[in-house]
Structure formats: C-alpha cells, structure tokens
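Take a look at the protein record below and flag anything odd:
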Amino acid sequence: MSRIGRKLIDIPQGVEVVLEGKKVFIKGKNGSLVFEVRPDIEVTKENNQLTVVPGKGTENLLKTTKALWGTTRQILFNMVQGVTTGYEKKLEIEGVGYRAVLEGDSLVLHIGFTNPVKLKIPEGIKVAVEKNTVVVSGPEKQAVGQFAASVRGTRVVEPYKGKGIKYQGEQVRRKLGKRAAATTGAGAGAK
C-alpha cells in the first residue's frame, strides 16, 4: 500500500475539479490544468475530496502501479495547490555587468558571453525581473521548476569568484584559488 497514495486530496473553495474519463481538469483563480491518469489508476471525487486508488483487476499490484499510485496522487495535489496559491522560484544573478531583461515573450540574459542568451518564456509561466533577481512563477510546479532550471543552467555559479546564476538561498561551495592555496601552505610540501 502506498502511504502517499492513500491520502485524500481536499478541494478548497473556488477550485473546480471535473473528471472526464481518464482526464482530470482542475480550474482555480491562477488558471486551469489538465492531467491524464494512467489506465491502471482510478480517481474519484466525493464530498469535495479526491481519492486516488489502483484500478479494479489489479489485485496483484504491479511494482509500477504501486509507484504511480502515489505519484499520481502527488501530481493532483500539486495541481490543486498550483491553481490556488501557485509556485514561485527566485534566481539571483551575480557578476559585474550580469543582468536580465524582459523583451516581449523572452528573457534576455547578459551573463558574460559574447552574445546575450535569449530564453523563450513558456505559456502559463510569468517572469519578473527586479534588479539582479529573476522571479519565475505559475500554477504548474513542473513547468516553473523546469524553466527556472534552464535559466540557472545558462550560467551555473562557478566556485572561485561566485559569478553566475543561482537559486535564492542556495549555498555555493567556494574554492581557494592557486595563489591563496600557495600562501596558506595547503598545496606546498612541509619541511
């Protein structure tokens, strides 16, 4: 039995959930999302709660069905959270002359390369730029995380000077340079 899969999903006020066959439509103040459930998993709605159970005829639960039971429940829970409160990732840009600018439906990053890096903002994602901080937000957790990861991946923070793009609050492990290591005696042989 899946501990996560057995948990019920409460549907808050203002959120509309419609089940059509194997598709689940969830609509709220932040937008609407659709998820297609696998054939061996069933979703039911009663008393403002969603229940996710393995389908009938799967008494000998396959390993994949067990794994996807909990995963399906968590995806639906994240969708309900997304249409009510939404998800947000903040990225910090560090480096002399490094900056981000919004141009139409693209995020343009000036991060030390010869040409600026242009990233097309996916549909349903909102991006805001405040000084050296890029805020990525939206109702779909996976889409917000994926776009934030692509922004971060354009120039990952290097460990010597700390220049690059990182998540807000992320700790970057810094290294000593050659000169600093030589003066502290870390690399030199002791007599």
Notes: The chain has two domains: 3-84, 87-167. Residues 63-84 form the longest helix (22 residues). The domain at 87-167 is CATH 3.90.930.12 (Outer Surface Protein A; domain 3).
